[in-house]
Fold:
Amino acid sequence: MTTPTTPAPRTSTAPAQEARTSPGADAPATEGGAPLQPPAHPGEGDSSSEGEGGAAPDDVAARQAARSHRQRPTSEAFRALMASGWAAAQEGTPGRAAAAPSAAARRAEVSRMFPGERLVIPAGPLKTRSNDTDYRFRAHSAFAHLTGLGGEREPDAVLVLDPRASEDGAQRGEAGHEGHEAVLLFRPRTPRTSEEFFADARYGEFWVGARPSLGDAEAELGLTCRDVRDLDDLLAEGGAPLRVVADADPALTARVSALRTAAGTDRAAAEVADDELVVALSELRLVKDEHEVEQMRLAVAASASGFEDVVRSLPRALDHVRGERVVESAFAARAREDGNGVGYETIAAAGEHACTLHWTRNDGPVRPGQLVLLDAGVEVDSLYTADVTRTLPVDGRFTEPQRRVYQAVLDAADASFAVAHPGSRFRDLHEAAMRVIAARLDEWGLLAVDAEEALSAEGGQHRRWMVHGTSHHLGLDVHDCAQARREMYLDAVLEPGMVFTIEPGLYFKSDDELVPEELRGIGVRIEDDVLVTADGCENLSAALPRDPGAVEEWMASLRG
Structure:
């Protein structure tokens, strides 16, 4: 997937926290006749108090009741029946997760960077898609990286790295991982005698499935687990300085801010401290460990299967008014079958649409003689994603102009591969590709200046036809490590274990009067996922052909 030439800014503005109670969910559960409160979520206001200039709570409740369409029984007989007759839970605890040792090592490194400070890394809340339905949950990447949790686990959870105190009460953190206790706070499984079990459409087991117990989670992840109701007490303990991943959960961030204000912490200094944490957690992912590389291989392999499915789907795409959706859905099916889903919105761009860099509407036709640019990646259950692009001739054969553009892009990619080894700088990848792009455009007579002038700081004319960057880091995020400092990203020396894309392209829009008519409407991008090794690099996506002749043979073999 294309990326701007420079990484994304290190700060972000998150939207206001969504309401915690879904409008269509059933009435609040009760236990023993008293209201059953949901697990505490920092930053939530007290809904029992009257807002300034607002209606009394009883009036609000009455209006809400008048709009209720719920049909759940409320009789005591129904409640008693729902709380009984269930088989005892099966005994046994889960085994240790494969990611647990790697996650522990990462937490130890973070502990060494922030001795004596309390670090708050939220998973994030559920987010409403429409009215009372939520998007599938996907944890914040920093949380997933430091816990090893993947899939759709665990909304509202918070990882706290809590500084341990010595016998004299002083905080200590200089002794590596012993400086912090890792505490995972989440909503544990509730008993079936609780009304949450059947009455809470957002969190109840009857509606969305069972959550783990605290003991199960401890056995699986190898860290201390507590009920998220304990979070406020933990954050306030001992007066340790607080840092939070601010954009992960705005409501929790507001609570942390209130605690820091009460402690007399300067707001501007606190924001700087939070930014430093985000930067450190982002840079921690620049070099992948063995487990991460294994997950990247799985994601790429699943993606390669998805590309094969797409080639097989092209005849059906030709017959459909929205053939791009046929292409998209073929890949999406593979992503859900073999992984957690797609790692980002798929770009399935036929013809002129390939010249729109982030074309994700995918609502156009697929016609004979066109190219289809497919930029797609499977995110596996660990949340690591691939990011691969191939540009395919719909008919299985490139035309001469299409092949000419394709070969230029491939040559640019190969030039970038040639410098993808330890000792090169990350920016060298882009510069190598741009030298080829500029030279080829100069040969075709498209530049008003020569290639050298275009490549100069005062030039840039060649970038009209490739405005994006050539590479970005890849991992838990499709544009991974985006909050890293410039010197650790663009200016960094490549190291073994780094994983990134190489993805040059050329895009000649159909209304571009500066290019020959035969090139108009042609958009080509070739993107591979690359692992830096001790003596060079490995193309993780090499199973998908890149050479134009090999692409044609591969497509023919799949279509029979």
Remarks:
- The CA atoms of residues 425 and 491 lie 6 Å apart.
